[in-house]
Amino acid sequence: GTRIEIGATVGPSAVTVEVADRGPGIPGGQEELIFDKFHRLPSADPKSGSGLGLAICRGIVQAHGGRIWVVNRPGGGAAFRFTIPLGGTPPLVRAAPADSAVDNQTA
């Protein structure tokens, strides 16, 4: 229910994007945990989601060689920030090995 602020800055080697609000912020000790799969804040509404959104965001940012994090804002709210390098080639992402049960099936 608060205004969302979106901004970006370009540095010499990366762009940093920030998405911020003036909500309740992130409880202390949860700043890294909220990026884990299926992690939800203790006060989260049971109908608010499955806890995958930020894990997906982290995967996309890391696949591009970047970093994502959150900080609480002075005066209330949270600021989610991520950086993406401007140059070079993103790191190679290797596919997970195929499930051996599927590989061993015969037609």
Task: Describe the structure in your own words.
This protein has 107 residues and is of the alpha+beta class. It is 14% helix and 25% strand. It has helices at residues 53-63, 100-103, and strands spanning 5-10, 14-20, 67-72, 78-85.
Q: Rg to the nearest angstrom? A: 18 Å
Quaternary structure of the protein: single chain
Order of helices and strands: EEHEEH
Helical content class:
10-25%
Shape: flat
Uncertain ranges: none
Give, in spatial order, the strands making up the sheet with the most strands: 1-2-4-3
Helix/strand/pairing category: alpha+beta
Beta-strand residue fraction: 25-35%
Q: In whole angstroms, how far apart are the ends? A: 55 Å
- Count of helical stretches: 2
The number of strands is: 4
The largest β sheet comes out as: 4 strands, antiparallel
Overall average residue pLDDT: 81
Write the layout of secondary structure elements.
Layout: E1 5-10, E2 14-20, H1 53-63, E3 67-72, E4 78-85, H2 100-103
Antiparallel strand pairs: 1-2, 2-4, 3-4
List keywords for this structure.
4-stranded antiparallel β-sheet, 2 helices, 107 residues
In brief:
The chain has 107 residues and is of the alpha+beta class.
